[in-house]
């Protein structure tokens, strides 16, 4: 669950980078997609498509409220998965091919987020943004399967992520600690997802990166979630969101909070905070720790620069089971990402390169001697 700025979770003051590109078309018939699924073709077809290594022209389904009620057993408590700043999330079942609701146990599972009434902006903008971002497909982004927009009811249907959020795995009591190798993989997956968004022709700024928005599948592969919602956060009214800064305290870049100026470097800062959470097992913001240790960045920064001090911030639940070399490299990367001047932060491609190199060198050292000698 997100924590709000001041006493509330979402903070601040920025324009949607997509605002100018998401006007809904008046033509509802042209350029329909070849998908056999029921889609909101009118919106999808006229929105700009993303050129990328991923499939460029996918679309999302427009669900009716009745369909989603049926998929979730009327949003019953047995289907409840959790709650965030935007509303409650439910587990639902739909047919893999037709996407029609099915009975539990048949078809595929989806996660359905039911937005609180006050959590969405103007209907057209909301719908356009959802369909626009619904075109994005990447293995490190949670897939947006569809949406429902009926009168005041706004829902989002996502691919279901079996292991839930990274936040739960890092901080919830009673959960088995995430191993070091897994943490490095998760960091790399997140970097891959962000790097994909930043490299698109129409660059997308994620804007609300935090461990609760990193979801894990059954194999602990990490994917970014909420990338469709975060850029236009809840406004509490239906006015245009251009004066709204969306982010979460503890993760949002200082210049973004101060000025509302949004750039890809804001995402890099938040990524640095997530790296610190992975290293330390501490929350970005923990009011129970007292003023000197409340903010993870402030507490950890002095230790990041000195190789010999790194162990002082490492998660004790790792019980020392981590590579010192990798921990130092990641601490140093985090420090660069957290630079107070956004210009001095690395790009996401550079970050990804560092993490992949790290993995590569580890993979090599893990190769058995015979494999080396054959090369
Ligand atoms: N696609 C999904 N698959 C499985 N569980 C999900 C999915 N999306 C969300 N959840 C679960 O639902 C809960 C609420 O998620 P939600 O995104 O609404 O809140 P949040 O990320 O904690 O905060 P915020 O509203 O700021 O994003 C989380 O605990 C998460 O584990
Ligand atoms: Mg979320």
From TrEMBL:
Organism name: Ananas comosus
Stretches assigned to coiled coil: none
Biased composition (Low complexity): 20-49
Membrane spanning residue stretches: none
Annotated region (Disordered), positions in chain: 1-49
Entry-linked Pfam families: Pkinase (PF00069)
Identification of the protein by name: non-specific serine/threonine protein kinase
UniProtKB keywords: ATP-binding, Kinase, Nucleotide-binding, Transferase
Residue intervals of the Protein kinase domain: 75-358
EC numbers for this chain: 2.7.11.1
Binding site for ATP: 114
PROSITE patterns: PROTEIN_KINASE_ATP (PS00107), PROTEIN_KINASE_DOM (PS50011)
One Gene Ontology MF term: ATP binding
Classification of source organism: Eukaryota, Viridiplantae, Streptophyta, Embryophyta, Tracheophyta
Catalysed reaction, written as an equation: L-threonyl-[protein] + ATP = O-phospho-L-threonyl-[protein] + ADP + H(+); L-seryl-[protein] + ATP = O-phospho-L-seryl-[protein] + ADP + H(+)
Signal peptide: none
């Amino acid at each position: 669950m997100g924590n709000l700025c001041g006493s509330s979770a979402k903070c601040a003051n920025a324009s949607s980078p997509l605002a100018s590109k998401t006007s809904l078309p008046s033509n509802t018939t042209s350029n329909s997609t070849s998908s056999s699924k029921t889609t909101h073709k009118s919106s999808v077809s006229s929105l700009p498509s993303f050129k990328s290594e991923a499939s460029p022209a996918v679309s999302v389904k427009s669900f009716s409220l009745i369909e989603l009620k049926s998929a979730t057993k009327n949003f019953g408590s047995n289907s409840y998965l959790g709650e965030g700043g935007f509303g409650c999330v439910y587990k639902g079942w739909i047919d893999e091919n037709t996407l029609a609701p099915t009975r539990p146990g048949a078809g595929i599972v989806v996660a359905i987020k039911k937005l609180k009434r006050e959590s969405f902006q103007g209907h057209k903008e909301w719908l356009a943004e959802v369909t626009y971002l619904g075109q994005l497909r990447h293995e490190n982004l949670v897939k947006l399967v569809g949406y429902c927009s009926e009168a005041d009811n706004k829902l989002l249907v996502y691919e279901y992520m079996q292991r839930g959020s990274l936040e739960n795995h890092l901080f919830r009591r009673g959960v088995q600690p995430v191993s070091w190798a897994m943490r490095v993989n998760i960091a790399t997956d997140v970097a891959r997802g962000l790097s994909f968004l930043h490299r698109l022709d129409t660059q997308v700024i994620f804007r609300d990166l935090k461990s609760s928005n990193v979801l894990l599948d059954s194999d602990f592969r990490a994917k970014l979630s909420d990338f469709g919602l975060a850029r236009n956060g809840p406004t509490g009214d239906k006015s245009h969101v251009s004066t709204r800064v969306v982010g979460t305290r503890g993760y949002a870049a200082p210049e973004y909070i101060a000025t509302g100026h949004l750039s890809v470097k804001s995402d890099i800062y938040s990524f640095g905070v997530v790296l610190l959470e992975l290293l330390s097992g501490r929350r970005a913001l923990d009011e129970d720790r007292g003023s000197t240790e409340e903010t993870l960045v402030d507490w950890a920064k002095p230790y990041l620069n000195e190789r010999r001090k790194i162990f002082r911030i490492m998660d004790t639940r790792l019980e020392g089971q981590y590579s010192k070399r990798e921990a130092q490299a990641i601490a140093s990367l985090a420090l660069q990402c957290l630079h107070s001047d956004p210009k001095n932060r690395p790009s996401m491609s550079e970050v990804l390169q560092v993490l992949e190199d790290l993995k590569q060198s580890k993979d090599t050292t893990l190769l058995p001697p015979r494999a080396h000698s054959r090369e």
